[in-house]
Design goal:
Distance between the termini: 21 Å
Structural class: mainly alpha
Helix content: 55-70%
Largest sheet: none
Number of strands: 0
Shape: globular
Length: 86
Amino acid sequence: MQDPALRTQSKGRDLNAAETTFAAALERIYETGCHDFAQVVEQLNARGDARPSGETGAWTLDIFEAELKAINASHDAAHAEHGIGA
């Protein structure tokens, strides 16, 4: 049996509403079998999905990467501050 603390070992904070919405959008896109990031970006644009940062405009590969990096950096900082399983 998995140690319950390991499920959230790198979680320094909960996803915010915009990140949760973005994660759900990505899951719906990935469920269609689309895994190529260029195609994911096309789908995000076609679906009109918002950026989790709140910035507006069309998705590009660079913006997609920047949004993911920003989320990861935020979670890394929260983990560093709050520790394992926060």
